């Protein structure tokens, strides 16, 4: 039996997760087993449920209870559902809900780097990408273009921040990902980890000795890790120096670089999405 609760008191502690707890507080670094995140929109919530994430509660616009939210709510009959009109929910959360539905969910323990890379031939590594919109966008491209796994350095924005999840359209729940452990120094120990798993490493960077993205040598690599840098400065010099290849995307009209989301999509298309190839 669904427990539907009409919102009458904005200060109710059950609503803190939607209204008064920050993304960093939800992450709960000190007690990660208690960490949560917010999934937004029916499609995103559906993908999270299919990936095995546990719902804690729903926040649903009243008019959607019997329409687009109905099927998802029926899958979670014991989970409380808080509801109100859209203007009430907007005042509560501080933003307009996408398709009238949010879900607070438990985080899962992060898998080991070796675990998610075990069967992958092409992986992506992101160094210090702090913008959650960019994180969401790179995951959507990774899912669409057959990237086997995504690895992130410690300073990256968390892929389960609400904006990253929404921009990704829930593909953060479909592509295996994890952070390098804090005691795995990047880039030196991180590169050693990648090489120990049989990956050759390719830094996307503007250097004089860069090879073109369409260089046949890259396509012939059995296992390849594509490494992308920050939105402003790109990859650290020490990271570039540690890689087997430095790779550039050929450009015209005097343009020297692309946003990391665009650059990764181009690289994934060239090196990960070849028709008929098993990745």
Automatic annotation (TrEMBL):
Name used for this protein in its record: RNA methyltransferase
Stored InterPro entries: Alpha/beta_knot_MTases (IPR029028), Ribosomal_eL30-like_sf (IPR029064), rRNA_Methyltransferase (IPR051259), SpoU_MeTrfase (IPR001537), tRNA_m1G_MTases_N (IPR029026)
Limits of the tRNA/rRNA methyltransferase SpoU type domain: 123-268
Keyword Methyltransferase: yes
Organism taxonomic ancestry: Bacteria, Bacillati, Bacillota, Clostridia, Lachnospirales
Species of the source: Candidatus Fusicatenibacter intestinigallinarum
One of the protein's GO biological processes: RNA processing
Keywords: Methyltransferase, Transferase
The keyword Ribosomal protein belongs to this UniProt entry's keyword annotation: no
GO MF, one annotated term: RNA methyltransferase activity
């Amino acid at each position: 039996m669904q427990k539907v609760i009409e919102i009458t008191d904005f200060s109710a502690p059950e609503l803190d997760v939607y209204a008064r707890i920050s993304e960093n507080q939800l992450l709960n670094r000190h007690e990660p087993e208690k960490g949560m995140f917010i999934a937004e929109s029916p499609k995103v919530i559906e993908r999270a449920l299919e990936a095995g994430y546990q719902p804690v509660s729903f926040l649903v616009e009243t008019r959607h209870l019997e329409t687009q939210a109905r099927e998802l709510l029926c899958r979670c009959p014991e989970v409380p559902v808080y509801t109100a009109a859209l203007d009430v929910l907007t005042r509560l959360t501080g933003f307009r809900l996408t398709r009238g539905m949010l879900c607070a969910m438990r985080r899962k323990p992060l898998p080991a780097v070796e675990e998610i890379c075990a069967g992958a031939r092409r992986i992506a590594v992101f160094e210090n990408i702090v913008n959650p919109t960019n994180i969401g966008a790179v995951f959507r491209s990774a899912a669409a273009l057959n990237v086997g796994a995504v690895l992130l350095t410690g300073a990256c924005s968390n892929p389960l921040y609400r904006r990253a999840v929404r921009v990704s359209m829930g593909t953060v729940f479909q592509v295996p990902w994890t952070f390098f452990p804090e005691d795995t120094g990047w880039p030196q120990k991180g590169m050693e980890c990648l090489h120990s798993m049989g990956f050759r490493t390719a830094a996307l960077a503007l250097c004089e000795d860069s090879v073109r993205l369409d260089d046949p040598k890259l396509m012939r690599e059995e296992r390849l890790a594509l490494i992308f840098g920050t939105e402003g400065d790109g990859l650290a010099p020490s990271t570039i120096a540690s890689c087997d290849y430095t790779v550039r995307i050929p450009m015209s009209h005097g343009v020297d670089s692309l946003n990391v989301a665009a650059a990764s999509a181009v690289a994934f298309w060239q090196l990960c999405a070849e028709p008929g190839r098993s990745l």
